[in-house]
Amino acid sequence: MTLTATPTLIATEALTKRYANGVAALSDLTVGVEPGIVGLVGANGAGKSTLIKILLGLLPPTAGRVRVLGLDPKTDAAQVRSRVGYMPEHDCLPPDLAAAEFVTHMARISGLPRTAARERASEALRHVGLYEERYRQIGGYSTGMKQRVKLAQALVHDPDLLLLDEPTNGLDPAGREAMLVLIHRIGTEFGISVVVCSHLLGEVERICDSLIAIDAGHLLRADRISAMTEARDVLVVEVAEGTDELVARLGKLGLEIVREGHTVLVPLLDDATYDQIVGAVAELDLPLHRLDQRRHRVAELFAATPSIPATPSVPASPSVPASPLISSPEEAGHGR
Questions:
Q1: With CB atoms 3.0 to 4.6 Å apart as the test, which of 10, 41, 169, 316 could cross-link to 33 if both were Cys?
Q2: Do 29 and 175 reside in the same domain of the chain?
Q3: Residue 7: pLDDT band by 50, 70, 90 thresholds?
Q4: Residue 164 and residue 259 in one domain
Q5: Last residue of some domain: 209, 228, 247?
Q6: d(CA 197, CA 163)
Q7: Average pLDDT of the chain?
Q8: Confidence band for 325, pLDDT divided at 50, 70 and 90
């Protein structure tokens, strides 16, 4: 992804933001964002929130250029916000209002007539799974339900682009899984491009098409997930039973074996390697569970930047492939 990529949802050129105290939140950030589901990742304090505020026209840059949907947020902030939905990280919901009332109010602020606003609010709450609970006061909602209300108000005016700031913040594993599936559905079925701001690499690896990683305001890498997770020349073999026997047989065939628990790793020399493995499994009459090429994990590409953690383990959705996960469950509840 580069500034010249077309079409672009977001384009920045030498974007810099320095605060009055001298802290540089963004430094010469140049990147282009194509349509799809895009992950914006970085550790706490990396500059993600500052970038989002600049994109929304809420904060002026110190230097550089930025365009959102072809518009300059500095001069066309109202137009940008009319086409962009924003889900903030922190809880900012009125506890004494029903979800339907609050989302309707946000639709009216976006310029929708009263009747259309009510209809759109009900539709948005249905999409996020809160239709049956829409007349309950928000103060009685769980954390997961409140996150869904924030997502509904971001969707209610039918935006072209969603900016989601730490959408899984504070959720338990089941809640994170449900939110990720919902975001993936919005990005793939609704035709709305999504920028998911997160400090957890594993989450964006699972649901995003592209990734932008920043650290201390500098761009680390911007690319498509598929380009970052290219297959390696290593075959991963798993059998339901008889791993010891399989390792011994493959060793006798002269193959170099690395064992990781119940998984056997075999260097892929040529197509004959597949035949040797399949033949050994068949001769031993073992139930073959897996035989494919190992792929890079996104987290491995940032091993030199340990401040960006992977996601804690969550159940996988059939429609959203899971990635190997390595960090502790406590990290998922952290803000930035």
A1: 10
A2: yes
A3: low
A4: no
A5: 228
A6: 7
A7: 84
A8: very low
